[in-house]
């Protein structure tokens, strides 16, 4: 091939970026930011425009076809045993479809997630990995938000500090990784700028919302009973048991500088997110009062 002839295997730069988990906390934000930057997006999940089901690999090649790269969130969590097989297969399908890279969301220091990353990389396509801390949005919009809205944060975890991260930072790092080749194949630890215990997080929630959010440290058996009573699927109960019972042992307590490395600015602080969330909530309440 001469230097002037087109590389027939190079992905089309005008082709869409596939977002797997496009209705989720990070996927939704990644898709929004890409669209704002003028990048076409193919939004995929069970309920998105492009059907994608982790339990049905037969549909994956169609979702991947004609895309240039993909942002991938595995559900329910990259640490479950099924993730390695699924990620290995998706990465092989992506290489076959000619994608230039995958940007994969992971937790930090999780052996199960590391196996899934290894399986994806073994397929021979560049995989950029974002190892994120526990999301602040878990308590403001995710699974634990209803409990916090009721004035309680109750989890089976002790005085273990966590550098809680704002999902908006995760999404901005993901978009940079998708659009700038310099990040290709690298691994970034994406955390907030300082570590707090869950008790300290509850105190910050109380301070910014002006309503008490009481911290309760649960025993594991009590927590598991509560999750089952709340109707969480058994797979999610097991997942939370592993997360809080094994992985919250201090191994991930230190903040890391992935946001600074990729975005050239510090990560957002807990207070910034909580203040922003409290302001948005009060606007909703005022709006509702006026109607
Ligand atoms: N939460 C944290 O603190 C944290 C921290 C670090 C890393 N992570 C990682 O974040 C990932 C989850 O990302 P997220 O928080 O952005 O998503 P999320 O808010 O948990 O939402 C899950 C997404 O996956 C889709 N989904 C659920 N089941 C699916 C299935 N069977 N097949 C296809 N799509 C399915 C959902 O859409 P549909 O319902 O439309 O299918 C939704 O778009 C996990 O892999 C976890 O390891 C989480």
Characterization of this structure:
With 291 residues, the chain is α/β, with parallel strands linked by helices. Helices cover 44% and strands 13% of the residues. The chain contains 12 helices and 9 strands. The strands form 2 sheets. It has a 7-stranded parallel β-sheet, with helices on both faces. It has a two-stranded parallel sheet with strand order 7-9. β1, α1 and β2 form a beta-alpha-beta unit. The longest helix has 21 residues. The site of NADP nicotinamide-adenine-dinucleotide phosphate has 27 residues, from α1 and β5.
Instruction: Report the total helices.
Output: 12
Give the CATH class. Answer: Alpha Beta
Structural class label: alpha/beta
> How many individual domains?
1
Q: Please give the CATH architecture.
A: 3-Layer(aba) Sandwich
Shape: globular
Question: What's the CATH H-level homologous superfamily?
Answer: NAD(P)-binding Rossmann-like Domain
CATH topology: Rossmann fold
Spatial separation of the terminal alpha carbons: 67 Å
For the biggest sheet, the summary is: 7 strands, parallel
Number of strands: 9
Radius of gyration: 20 Å
* Hetero ligands: NADP nicotinamide-adenine-dinucleotide phosphate
List the helices and strands and how they pair.
Blueprint: E1 17-20, H1 25-36, E2 41-45, E3 50-51, H2 60-64, E4 69-72, H3 82-96, E5 101-106, H4 111-122, E6 127-132, H5 137-140, H6 145-149, E7 152-155, H7 167-179, E8 187-190, H8 198-209, E9 214-217, H9 220-229, H10 234-247, H11 258-263, H12 270-290
Helix pairs in contact: 1-7, 3-4, 8-12, 9-10
Bound molecules: NADP nicotinamide-adenine-dinucleotide phosphate.
Residues 21-27, 45-48, 52-55, 73-75, 77-78, 105-107, 132, 134-135, 138 line the site of NADP nicotinamide-adenine-dinucleotide phosphate.
């Amino acid at each position: 091939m001469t230097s002037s002839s087109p590389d027939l295997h190079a992905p089309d730069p005008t082709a869409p970026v596939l977002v797997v988990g496009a209705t989720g906390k990070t996927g939704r934000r990644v898709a929004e930011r890409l669209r704002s930057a003028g990048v076409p997006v193919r939004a995929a999940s069970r309920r998105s425009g492009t059907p994608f089901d982790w339990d049905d690999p037969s549909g994956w090649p169609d979702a991947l076809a004609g895309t240039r790269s993909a942002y991938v969130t595995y559900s329910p969590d990259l640490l479950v045993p099924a993730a390695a097989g699924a990620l290995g297969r998706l990465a092989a399908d992506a290489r076959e479809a000619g994608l230039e890279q995958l940007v994969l969301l992971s937790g930090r220091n999780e052996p199960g997630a590391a196996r899934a990353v290894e399986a994806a990389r073994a397929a021979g396509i560049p995989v950029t990995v974002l190892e994120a801390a526990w999301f602040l949005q878990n308590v403001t919009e995710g699974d634990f938000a209803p409990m916090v809205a009721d004035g309680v944060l109750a989890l089976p975890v002790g005085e273990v500090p966590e550098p809680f991260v704002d999902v908006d930072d995760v999404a901005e790092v993901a978009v940079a990784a998708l659009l700038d080749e310099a990040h290709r194949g690298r691994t970034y630890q994406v955390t907030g700028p300082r570590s707090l215990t869950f008790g300290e997080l509850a105190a910050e929630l109380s301070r910014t919302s002006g309503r008490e959010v009481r911290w309760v440290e649960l025993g594991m058996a009590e927590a598991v009973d509560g999750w089952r009573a709340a109707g969480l699927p058994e797979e999610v109960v097991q997942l939370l048991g592993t997360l809080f019972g094994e992985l919250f042992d201090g191994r991930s307590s230190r903040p890391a500088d992935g946001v600074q490395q990729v975005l050239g600015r510090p990560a957002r602080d807990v207070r910034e997110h909580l203040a922003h969330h409290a302001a948005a909530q009060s606007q909703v309440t005022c709006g509702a009062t006026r109607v």
